[in-house]
């Protein structure tokens, strides 16, 4: 696990595209992704993580990615939350424990930075992801809403 660099952005986009939902909403103009990367990278409350593949002939391919955001708040006694977003594991690495290791690393990151609660969202259609998160101690305790702007 390491902090992503600008050179990782194309590989991260490929991970984001590697599923049914991502294949329809990711890709296109690289400039937008590069702008977003610079904004994320310049914010000390953000950590865009990547996992490099250790497989032979991987040629620097990424095995996984996730974005971590520390959110200070007044609720829960002034608690800081760790938001985990855009968790992706490359198809060839799924089922080997990498996703669980990534979550454990993220939780340690949150703890080191004073977070007392970790939260994440996942699309309602991702039943397999729901089972994965539940196996790792997450509960579907809230209903989320989104609205395009």
Structure commentary:
By secondary structure, this protein is α+β, with helices and mostly antiparallel strands. It has a single domain (2-135), classed as 3-Layer(aba) Sandwich (Aminopeptidase), CATH 3.40.630.30. Helix content is 36%, strand content 24%. It has 6 helices and 5 strands. It has helices at residues 9-17, 22-25, 30-41, 75-78, 98-112, 127-135, and strands spanning 2-3, 46-52, 62-72, 80-89, 115-120. Strands 1-2-3-4-5 form a 5-stranded mixed β-sheet, sandwiched between helices. Helix 5 (98-112) links the parallel strand 4 and strand 5 (115-120). The N and C termini lie far apart (33 Å). One of its GO terms (molecular function) is lyase activity. Residues 1-149 form the N-acetyltransferase domain. Keywords: Acyltransferase, Lyase, Transferase. InterPro entries: Acyl_CoA_acyltransferase, Bact_Acetyltransf, GNAT_dom. This is Regulatory protein for C-P lyase.
Keywords, separated by commas or semicolons:
149 residues; alpha+beta; Aminopeptidase; 6 helices; 5 strands; Acyl_CoA_acyltransferase; Bact_Acetyltransf; GNAT_dom; acyltransferase activity, transferring groups other than amino-acyl groups
């Amino acid at each position: 696990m390491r902090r992503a660099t600008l050179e990782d952005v194309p590989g991260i986009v490929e991970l984001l595209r590697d599923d049914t939902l991502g294949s329809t909403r990711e890709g296109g103009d690289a400039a937008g992704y590069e702008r977003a990367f610079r904004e994320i990278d310049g914010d000390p409350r953000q950590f865009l993580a990547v996992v490099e593949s250790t497989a032979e002939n991987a040629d620097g391919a990424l095995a996984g990615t996730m974005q971590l955001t520390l959110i200070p708040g007044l609720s829960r006694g002034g608690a800081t939350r760790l938001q985990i977003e855009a968790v992706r594991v490359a198809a060839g690495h799924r089922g080997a424990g990498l996703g669980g290791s990534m979550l454990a690393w993220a939780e340690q990151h949150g703890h080191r930075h004073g977070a007392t609660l970790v939260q994440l969202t996942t699309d309602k259609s991702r039943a397999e992801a729901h089972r994965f998160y539940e196996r790792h101690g997450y509960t579907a305790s809230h209903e989320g809403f989104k609205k395009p702007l």
